[in-house]
Design brief:
Helix content: 25-40%
Distance between the termini: 56 Å
Structural class: alpha/beta
Number of domains: 2
CATH architecture of the largest domain: 3-Layer(aba) Sandwich
CATH topology of the largest domain: Rossmann fold
Strand content: 25-35%
Shape: globular
Radius of gyration: 23 Å
Number of strands: 17
């Protein structure tokens, strides 16, 4: 419940657009919902989930169990499948009616398509690909005016070399998209209760300017966020052929394969394996870093791992500053020895 302390507080809710895959909630949206709950508690306002499309009613309770005080269910025959124009109009109408103070989305392909369209139509600010969000104050250096209880939108800039804090003090809602994996998935409380508000959208056939002719769903073959063990390779492997050592070690341990941006850019691995500020954030029980120097951009995506084992030829490599166990040596020699000894011990 939201407590009324009698203090001055914002009246607008904190909203999260909840994305879905058919009849399942997208985990990335639930991660954002957990952070939204923290922001809402700081502001002493409600957090609301927004879900669109058919069969949404059955998912509303799940959204409440993951932290929402209220769920707005948008219904319309024209919102059965995602189309940019229809979703933009429907959500903008709802925002203009309810006037939330903050609107958040996961930075998935859909979120990256929808959020800027809404921001443009409402003429409000938007910060994309945030890695953290906080409530704080901001003083305008030109006017000296202080803005309290505004959203501090934090994200890397200049290739990850600078961490920028961005604010939108004048417009509402304050909008941001959040990278997948940056926020922890909140615990589900099956006893939670909240309000479900059904809204019939005013979308018309004329608002649909594109038609969905066919949909193809491709199952994910990489699940780095849920992996208990990750073996990751960097540019230190030298070649795509050498990167196969990482895959072989991962198969032996039943682990997922990760990669640095440098390894992905060099063609050693696909982007779906990329870990770091420009990839995905992971928290496995065991992270084995092979030929990874430890650039700050990569460390930001894996430094919360339970145990970190690093293999690198440079004893001064930054990766050793956060590793629990370090092996100084050439990965092309160390990995085959690890594989050979593991097989001997396992037999």
């Amino acid at each position: 419940m939201i407590k009324d302390t009698g203090k001055s507080k914002q009246t607008g809710e904190v909203w999260v657009f909840i994305q879905r895959y058919e009849k399942e909630l997208e985990e990335a949206s639930l991660e954002v919902l957990g952070k939204a709950r923290q922001l809402a508690e700081k502001l002493q306002v409600a957090v609301a989930g927004i879900i669109v499309g058919e069969h949404s009613e059955g998912l509303a309770q799940h959204i409440i169990e993951y932290g929402a005080h209220r769920v707005y269910v948008l219904n319309s025959v024209y919102l059965r499948g995602y189309t940019s124009s229809a979703y933009t109009k429907a959500l903008c109408s709802l925002i203009e009616d309810k006037k939330p103070s903050i609107m958040l989305m996961a930075a998935t392909p859909q979120g990256r398509d929808l959020a800027p369209r809404i921001a443009s139509k409402l003429r409000v600010g938007l910060t994309a690909d945030c890695t953290d969000l906080r409530i704080g104050s901001y003083t305008d250096p030109k006017t000296g005016k202080k803005h309290n209880n505004i959203l501090l939108q934090i994200r890397p800039a200049w290739g990850g070399n600078v961490i920028a804090t961005i604010v939108n003090p004048q417009t509402r809602p304050q909008m941001a998209t959040i990278r997948e994996g940056m926020m922890k998935l909140p615990a589900r409380n099956r006893a939670a209760r909240g309000e479900v508000v059904h809204i019939q959208s005013d979308i018309e056939r004329a608002d649909i300017i594109t038609t969905i002719l066919q949909q193809q769903h491709v199952a994910r073959t990489v699940n780095l966020k849920q992996a208990p063990i990750i073996v990751a390779g960097g540019a230190g492997l030298g070649t795509k052929e050498n990167f196969q050592l990482v895959r072989e070690l991962a198969r032996l341990f039943g682990a997922e394969v990760g990669a640095t941006r440098a390894a992905v850019d060099a063609g050693f691995s696909g982007h779906e394996h990329q870990i770091g500020q420009t990839g995905i954030t992971v928290r496995p029980k065991l992270y084995i870093a092979c030929g990874i120097s430890g650039a700050v951009q990569h460390l930001a995506g894996m430094e919360e791992s339970g145990r970190i084992v690093a293999i690198n030829t440079d004893p001064e490599a930054p990766i050793f500053s956060i590793a629990h166990y370090g092996i100084v040596g050439d990965v092309r020699e160390v990995i085959p020895k690890l594989i050979r000894n593991y097989r001997i011990l396992s037999h």
